[in-house]
Write a structure and sequence with these properties.
By secondary structure, this protein is an alpha/beta fold. 29% of the residues lie in helices and 25% in strands. The strands form four sheets. A six-stranded mixed β-sheet has the order 9-8-13-7-6-10. The chain has a three-stranded parallel β-sheet with strand order 1-2-3, with helices on one face. The protein is elongated and about 80 Å long.
Length: 241
């Protein structure tokens, strides 16, 4: 606890605003540091903690009533620690014919997760009383008047009915390029940060918890789900001939 020489430093005219803990039992040492700082008349001095912190460690330290005012999170944040690589795959979902009509396309795979979704896709997010209630992947050519059903492509027994008449909604996908030209205006990092915070606040707390969180409803619009399944069965049947 060498940082507690801050009282002597302030006596020499140096204003001390905080100390840093970056190893050991952060819950125990922060409580000890807070006690000694207060006893020394340095209750204004803040305690900063670091040491490979992530959301799970921060939550655990808060549950232990750690006396930490500021969190130094670096390695687990800027290095994409849990997802070091992002796999990007292009899959054709529809082909425009000479007459301007679109024809669905699908790629088959032995792994169901790699089978793409056909059609001209868009994602619509639904809200009820200021809270997110579900996301729907749909084909832009589909009539969505009235109530719609979304189906989990990984588990068809999971479905949810969303009524546009009773819910607010917005489309999420925005075009970036059209005919080779960029049509998207970049947003500032501060605007992105603000929007992310606002969007997270619209999720129910049971979805945001770390242990056994509820699954946020995301699924295919029912007619798109059926069209995808029909295409899969059709092409698999052709492959067996």
């Amino acid at each position: 606890m060498q940082s507690l020489s801050t009282k002597k430093a302030e006596a020499r005219g140096h204003k001390i605003n905080g100390i840093r803990l970056d190893s050991g039992d952060l819950a125990y040492f922060s409580q000890l540091a807070r006690k000694k700082l207060n006893e020394a008349g340095l209750s204004h001095v803040k305690i900063v903690a670091s040491n490979d912190l992530d959301e799970h460690l921060v939550a655990s330290l808060k549950q232990q009533d750690a006396e930490i005012d500021s969190w130094g999170i670096g390695t687990k944040l800027i290095t994409a620690f849990d997802q070091p690589a992002l796999g990007g795959v292009y899959k054709l979902s529809a082909l425009e014919k000479k007459d301007g009509q679109w024809e669905d396309r699908i790629k088959l795979s032995e792994q169901s997760v790699k089978i793409n979704i056909p059609g001209l896709q868009q994602v619509k997010r639904f809200f009820k009383e200021g809270q997110m209630v579900g996301d729907m992947i749909f084909d832009e050519r589909t009539d969505l008047s009235g109530a719609v059903r979304i189906i989990d492509p990984a588990d068809p027994t999971r479905s949810k009915i969303l009524n546009k008449e009773d819910l607010e909604c917005e489309d999420l996908l925005k075009p970036v390029f059209r005919k080779g030209k960029c049509v998207y205006k970049n947003e500032t990092i501060h605007h992105l940060q603000k929007r992310t915070s606002e969007q997270l606040s619209l999720l129910d707390k049971t979805i945001k918890r770390f242990i056994n969180p509820h699954r946020y409803p995301v699924g295919l619009e029912e007619s798109l789900f059926k069209r995808r399944l029909d295409l899969i069965l059709k092409h698999k049947e052709e492959a067996r001939r």
